[in-house]
Design a protein that fits this description.
Layout lengths: L1 H17 L4 H26 L14 H10 L5 H4 L17 H29 L8 H29 L1 H24 L19 H23 L11 H28 L11 E4 H4 L7 E7 L4 H10 L3 H4 L4 E3 L2 E2 L5 H10 L8 H10 L3 H7 L3 E5 L19 E3 L4 E3 L7 H13 L2 H8 L11 E3 L6 E2 L5 H14 L9 E7 L7 H4 L11 H22 L5 E6 L7 H4 L14 E4 L9 E3 L4 E2 L3 H8 L11 H7 L5 E8 L5 E9 L9 E6 L2 E2 L3
Parallel strand pairs: 2-10, 2-11, 3-13, 4-14, 5-10
Antiparallel strand pairs: 1-6, 1-9, 3-12, 7-8, 11-12, 15-16, 16-17, 17-18
C-alpha cells in the first residue's frame, strides 16, 4: 500500500511540474494529490493505533496527538509542491589530499631537484675531477644534501598549491615537469657546442640562428605538458581525466632512475681520484721562489699563452719594452710541442713524452723519472717551483726530492660552501649552465677561469708566503705583491733553479693591467700582458738590488701560442694560420742596449729540458740538443706541433700533428702528418 502510494504521488508531482503553463489543470492535479495525502493519513492512523490485548482501547485520540497530524497534512502551496518531496541524497565530497597525489608530488619534486642539484653537477664533477682542487666527498655530499632539502621544499610548495586549488596545482606541476624535460633534453641532446672553462669568453650570448632555435625548442618542450593538459580538457571542473598527471608521474620516476643509474655507472667506471683533503695541508712558499744565490741562478718564467704573433704586436704597441728587455734575445721562430698547457708544461719539466691516455697516470709516471728538477737537485741545485696542480702535477708527493719550497699548513684549512665562488654556488652555476639553453649559459658560465676551484677553500691562518697550487690571475698578483713587499734576497747557500708559472696572457685581468702606469681603456690580452711585464720588471729590479741579476740566466717563454679556436670552437678540419710561441733568453752576464730579435733560429720548447741542463753544465745526451747547441751547429731538425681539442682538464682530444720546417711564421712550411693519431693520407 505504501509503495504504491509513493509511486502515484511521485507521478502526480511530475505531472504538476510539466503543467506549469496550464494553471487550471495544474490546480486539479495538486488537489488530487492533497486529497490522496489526507486519505493516506486517515488510513495510516486507523491501522497503527490499535488497543493492546490486555488494555482497553481509548475512545478517541487526544487532541494533542491530532494536532501534529492535521498540521503535517495541511495543503502545500504551489511553490512547495514544485519540487519532489523525496529527500535528495548527499554526494560524497572528494578528498583533496590523497596518496596518489602525494606520490605524484614526490616524484616530480625529487626528479626536478635531484636533476638540478645532484645528477647534473655530480656528472660534471665525476667527468672532470682533475679540474677540482678538493676531494670528492667535499663536492658530492653537499650536493646530495642540497638535493634532498630542495626536494622537501618543492613538495611543501606543491602541497600549498594543491590546498589553494586543484587546477592551480596541476598547472604548476605541469610547468615544473616541462622545465625538467627541457633541461634533460638540453643536457642530453643539445649541448654539443659547449666549450671548456678556460677563462675565455664563450660565444653563448650571440643571437645566432642556432642559439635562437635552441631557445625556441627549450621553451616549446617546457610548455608541452601544460598545453597538452589544456587541450585534453583536464582542467575542466567535471572532467575526470587522470592520464595527464599519471603520465607526469611515470616520466619523473623514469628520469630519476635513468640518471641515478647513469651516475652510478660513471662513478664505477672512472672512480674517485681524491678521497681526502690532505693535499691542502701543503703549499708552495713564495719565500723560496725569491731566495736566490750569489753564486749562480737559473730563473724561468713560464708565461701562459705568450704567442709570438701577439708578442710582436705588443712590442709595436709598447715600444718601451724593447728597452726594458735590452739584455734579452727574443727568439721569434720558436714553437711549442703542443697547443695546450697540458701536456706542454709537464713535458718541459719531466722530459716525459705524452702520447695520449689518462692525465694522472701520465703525471705520476713522469715525475718518478729523471726529471729536470731531479737532475738539478742531484747536482747541488736548490729547486723552487710555483706550478699548477691541475696541469703539471697531480699531488705534492710527486715532487718529493725535487722541490724545496713546499711547506705545510696543517689544521688551517676551511671550506667555502656558500660564499662568493663557493662550492655550492659554483656548482649551481655549472649545473644550471648545463641544463639551460645557450642564450642563458653565458650569464651562468662566463666569468669562471680554469682555477675556479681555488676559491673552494681558504687557509684560516695568515701565511703571507703561501701560494695556491692553482695558477690564475690571483696568483700572478700575489707573486707581484710579495716581491714588491719583500724583495729578492741572495741567502741561498747553493745554486738555484726557480720555475714560476704565470697566468699572463691566458686570462684578461684588470688588476694586472693596472700595474702599467699608462693603462687606460678596455682590458684585453695586450693590456694584461703589458701589466705582466711590469711584474717581470719588478722581479728583475729586485734581483739587481740583491746583486743576483748579472749572475743569473733568465728564460721567459710561453707554454704554447694562441689557442686553435678554428678547431676547438668552429670545428674546422685544419689550422688556418701558424702558431708560434715566444721565447726570451738572457744568459748570465749578458748586457745589451736594446732587445735583440732573432727570427732565424728554428727552436722549439721540446729542446727546453736539454737547454736548462746545458745552462747548468749537466750532461743531457739522452734529451737531445739544447738551444745553444742547435744555434751553434745551424743544423735544425723538423719541429712538430700536436693540436689538441681541449674538453677540460683531464680531457683532451688528439686532432692533428704538424711537421714544421724553416720559418714557422710561413704557414706554407706547415704540413699535416697525423690525424687523430694516425698517419695523414693527404
Amino acid at each position: 500500500m505504501q509503495i504504491q502510494y509513493k509511486d502515484v504521488r511521485r507521478s502526480l508531482c511530475g505531472v504538476a511540474l510539466k503543467l506549469r503553463g496550464f494553471p487550471a489543470e495544474r490546480e486539479k492535479i495538486i488537489e488530487m494529490r492533497v486529497n490522496m495525502d489526507n486519505e493516506f493519513d486517515t488510513n495510516l492512523n486507523s491501522e497503527t493505533v490499535q488497543p493492546a490485548p490486555e488494555e482497553a482501547a481509548p475512545d478517541s485520540i487526544p487532541a494533542a496527538e491530532e494536532a501534529p497530524t492535521e498540521s503535517a497534512t495541511a495543503p502545500e502551496t504551489a511553490a512547495e509542491t514544485a519540487a519532489p518531496a523525496e529527500p535528495v541524497k548527499k554526494k560524497k565530497k572528494k578528498k583533496r589530499f590523497t596518496l596518489k597525489k602525494e606520490f605524484t608530488i614526490f616524484a616530480i619534486s625529487a626528479a626536478f631537484c635531484f636533476t638540478a642539484c645532484f645528477f647534473a653537477p655530480a656528472d660534471i664533477f665525476i667527468g672532470n675531477q682533475h679540474d677540482f682542487a678538493i676531494s670528492a666527498p667535499r663536492i658530492l655530499y653537499p650536493l646530495f644534501e642540497a638535493a634532498c632539502i630542495t626536494t622537501v621544499a618543492l613538495m611543501i610548495f606543491l602541497n600549498i598549491m594543491l590546498a589553494i586549488n586543484v587546477r592551480l596545482w596541476k598547472i604548476v606541476s605541469s610547468l615544473i615537469s616541462g622545465l625538467l624535460l627541457a633541461g634533460y633534453s638540453q643536457m642530453m641532446l643539445m649541448n654539443g657546442r659547449m666549450v671548456s672553462i678556460t677563462g675565455d669568453a664563450a660565444p653563448y650570448s650571440v643571437r645566432s640562428k642556432f642559439n635562437l632555435a635552441n631557445l625556441a625548442i627549450f621553451i616549446a618542450i617546457t610548455l608541452t605538458p601544460t598545453l597538452f593538459m589544456i587541450i585534453s580538457g583536464d582542467l575542466k571542473k567535471k572532467k575526470k581525466n587522470r592520464f595527464h598527471m599519471r603520465a607526469l608521474t611515470y616520466i619523473s620516476v623514469a628520469l630519476f632512475i635513468m640518471q641515478g643509474v647513469g651516475i652510478g655507472g660513471r662513478l664505477a667506471k672512472i672512480g674517485i681520484e681524491k678521497s681526502d683533503d690532505s693535499q691542502f695541508e701543503s703549499f708552495f712558499s713564495l719565500n723560496g721562489a725569491t731566495d736566490l744565490s750569489s753564486d749562480e741562478n737559473i730563473v724561468v718564467f713560464l708565461t701562459d699563452r705568450l704567442d709570438a704573433d701577439w708578442m710582436e704586436t705588443l712590442l709595436d704597441d709598447y715600444p718601451e719594452l724593447n728597452d726594458e728587455l735590452a739584455d734579452f734575445t727574443f727568439y721569434a721562430n720558436n714553437t711549442s710541442g703542443y697547443t695546450n698547457t697540458f701536456p706542454a708544461v709537464p713535458q718541459m719539466l719531466t722530459a716525459h713524452k705524452y702520447d695520449g691516455g689518462e692525465w694522472v697516470p701520465y703525471l705520476d709516471e713522469g715525475w718518478k723519472g729523471q726529471t729536470v728538477p731531479r737532475r738539478l737537485h742531484e747536482n747541488g741545485y736548490t729547486v723552487n717551483m710555483l706550478i699548477d696542480s691541475s696541469t703539471t702535477f697531480s699531488k705534492y708527493s710527486n715532487l718529493k726530492g725535487q722541490c724545496d719550497n713546499i711547506r705545510s699548513a696543517e689544521n688551517f684549512v676551511d671550506y667555502n660552501y656558500f660564499g662568493p665562488h663557493g662550492i655550492l654556488r659554483t656548482m649551481a652555476h655549472f649545473s644550471l649552465g648545463k641544463l639551460s639553453p645557450y642564450l642563458v649559459k653565458g650569464r651562468l658560465m662566463n666569468g669562471y677561469a680554469a682555477d675556479f676551484s681555488s676559491k673552494f677553500y681558504v687557509i684560516t691562518a695568515d701565511i703571507p708566503e703561501r701560494l695556491d697550487a692553482s695558477i690564475g690571475m690571483d696568483s700572478d698578483m700575489k707573486i707581484y705583491q710579495y716581491v714588491k713587499k719583500n724583495g729578492i734576497n741572495a741567502n741561498s747557500p747553493s745554486k738555484t733553479f726557480t720555475f714560476i708559472h704565470l697566468d699572463f696572457m691566458h686570462d684578461n685581468s684588470k688588476a694586472l693591467s693596472n700595474l702599467y702606469d699608462g693603462f687606460e681603456g678596455e682590458v684585453d690580452k695586450y693590456t694584461t700582458a703589458r701589466g705582466g711585464f711590469e711584474l717581470l720588471n719588478t722581479y728583475f729590479e729586485e734581483m739587481k738590488k740583491a746583486g743576483v741579476y748579472d749572475n743569473s740566466t733568465i728564460v721567459i717563454l710561453g707554454d704554447h701560442g694562441h689557442p686553435p679556436v678554428e678547431i676547438e670552437v668552429d670545428k674546422k678540419k685544419n689550422l688556418e694560420e701558424s702558431v708560434r710561441t715566444s721565447l726570451f733568453i738572457k744568459p748570465a752576464g749578458a748586457k745589451g742596449d736594446k732587445l735583440t730579435i732573432n727570427k732565424e733560429a728554428e727552436l722549439s720548447n721540446d729542446y727546453f729540458p736539454a737547454s736548462i741542463l746545458d745552462f747548468a753544465g749537466i750532461s743531457h745526451d739522452d734529451l737531445g740538443p739544447s738551444y745553444n747547441e742547435l744555434m751553434a751547429s745551424g743544423n735544425y731538425p723538423e719541429r712538430y706541433l700536436k693540436v689538441y681539442c681541449w674538453h677540460g682538464i683531464g680531457n683532451i682530444e688528439d686532432i692533428l700533428k704538424y711537421e714544421i720546417s724553416g720559418d714557422a711564421s710561413d704557414f706554407s712550411n706547415w704540413k699535416v702528418v697525423e690525424r687523430k693519431g694516425k698517419p695523414a693520407t693527404e
